[in-house]
């Protein structure tokens, strides 16, 4: 296992390096400069400023310089936020995004599982159809539509929850619900399908024949097996949530990282583009890694060759 | 299955209607309760709750370039002068000034004012900040705004050391500024953030941290930045050390960062914000509300026409294009946010001349919509060019409102000018700028806002080979008018003014650009908020005179 982990870790570094390289050169293909007052500057004034930031060097030189700093953990300073270190900028904003993503995943998984199991047990009943319709809606309606509806009805009309801002737990409820709709729908769908398959398999029949109660069959035997594919989708879903919170964050005025990702590209804020891309990539790679490890924990059948020793 | 689904949808609809109905009732009840006696008291508390669309990019007055930073700075810092309620410069850190006979040497007498840490504000603070702004090592993007000071350009381009800059502290309380040319708008320039003072000791002590946090910045304005939660909120508190603290009534201003207009409106409705900016779709809802507040800005949008293009080199073709679209429709239907149709280049309500008249009052409408005339000119142009079918590309911003505007322009131009096809090319802001700079466009929708309070900030754009001309247009008479206004006519302000009036006439007579609209912004603001002053350049708002009634 240790060897496998190390190997995977080396691959992770290589992947990150490739991403950094590709992003850097693609980014340099963007026309325009990172200057925030560009439309007012004459070409000479622009040159003076670009010179100071080393942006007049040939791109390969800039690339090498960037990598040198990166290895030392220095992501540089932002252009749009004068002199603010990129690392600081990411750290300040990741908290709310991560909290929302985490809450949405946990809430969505629990509700989705319950809904899926319920639908599978009550196969072809009204309850099953209800759950199915809910899943279809959850998948097809984007989270920001839910967000806007929740804000208007719950926030403005009923005034049960705050409309927006980020000042405590009650402020996280609506964005969490809005974000978790997709998660609920996905998980419920997968759980239902998997559960139906598992419930029809031979070993469940055996368990039932042994006289184990309905609850025992479901919780001891069926769920565990039904969980495997769900763990698979959980990884990418978590990353999707992290990067895809942008619009929901904007609607609820959450001070998250989502917008920076897009904004930095629009503004040619080179250091922030690199910083956020690398950060999100590292996150994605890490999540995939964790999911791989989790497989082994849940299903001994796919434990790795190295692990047997 | 299908039946059940539709049944479900009907149910869902019913439930949501019910919810909405309930909501309405509840809203009233809650409203009554909240609007009763209690909020009236709390509102007298002199706390203003505002929204900002973005995190503050910078609190270093020398480096800042954007509206959000400038707005905060205008309220927590103060230059030699500041803009008053009528947008005229009024003494700030300076108590008075004297100007030499030739108008080139200003001597400012500073008042006894303090920084928020108790240090006195001295003439050295100005010298330090201005040198820092022009030092090429600082790479300040607004350095050029100081180029009217003697040697400023040379210092900024590294040809002279910073100590050669024409600004001197004669003693702690006397600042002497030497100008390159005796510009008549220097006092109003000193209200601009790049001209604010900075405390050398403090800036050096904070090093790289300066201006990044509330407590690594020093204040000398009516308010201090008391709290700054990045990307989330910031707060201004009254500055007890401010020299004119007696005038300041507001105790606290809370800003929350909200990027979504619908959210801002919802916050306004639930009384979490006292003011919200509206986009076109919300203006219809609030247009007749007594709290609706449209505001006109001195920012002008126009079509730039690249004269390297054979068709656009033809003055009749340009004129036809400039006259062929309905500006009223653009301002009132497409934009619908307080924007005005523009038949001019220097914005309305931006600057008054030596005779006290607004520039627009003097020069009126110059290039009005006239479809009949446009059709005639277009036919003549086509004949001169020997072409029957003409295709032009319109370079546009990629924002939602610009897209609509672009489509509308295309429809209008194609309908009114026979044989014309317009292809729209949308680009993100920076990429669009890049294409314009390289003159790789045919027609482009562009905007321009003032850098200083003088028509020249618009007029001098179109001198031959000017950095922002970008049309290839060149007119010796125009160039001479601009040059005279910048040099020989500085001794005769009325003649200078007349030269600029004449220059604008030439510009639009030749239809170098086709004015489209003067930008406005629409707000809703609670009736108990009074006295927020709107500015035409520098920071957008002053809260110094604002209060809660």
UniProtKB/TrEMBL annotation, chain A:
It holds the Pfam family BPD_transp_1. GO terms for biological process: transmembrane transport. InterPro entries: BPD_transp_1_N (IPR045621), MetI-like (IPR000515), MetI-like_sf (IPR035906). PROSITE patterns: ABC_TM1. The chain crosses the membrane at residues 9-27, 100-121, 133-154, 166-188, 226-252, 272-298. It comes from the Bacteria. It is a multi-pass membrane protein. The keyword Cell membrane applies. This is Oligopeptide transport system permease protein. The lineage of its organism: Bacteria, Bacillati, Bacillota, Bacilli, Bacillales.
TrEMBL record, chain B:
GO terms for cellular component: ATP-binding cassette (ABC) transporter complex; outer membrane-bounded periplasmic space. Keywords: Disulfide bond, Peptide transport, Periplasm, Protein transport, Signal, Transport. Residues 88-467 form the Solute-binding protein family domain. CDD domains: PBP2_OppA (cd08504). It is found in: Periplasm. Gene3D superfamilies: Dipeptide-binding Protein, Domain 1 (3.90.76.10), Dipeptide-binding Protein, Domain 3 (3.10.105.10), Periplasmic binding protein-like II (3.40.190.10). It comes from the Bacteria. One of its GO terms (molecular function) is peptide transmembrane transporter activity. InterPro entries: Peptide/Ni-bd (IPR030678), SBP_5 (IPR039424), SBP_5_dom (IPR000914). Residues 1-20 form the signal peptide. It holds the Pfam family SBP_bac_5. One of its GO terms (biological process) is protein transport. The complex is composed of two ATP-binding proteins (OppD and OppF), two transmembrane proteins (OppB and OppC) and a solute-binding protein (OppA). Belongs to the bacterial solute-binding protein 5 family. This is Periplasmic oligopeptide-binding protein OppA.
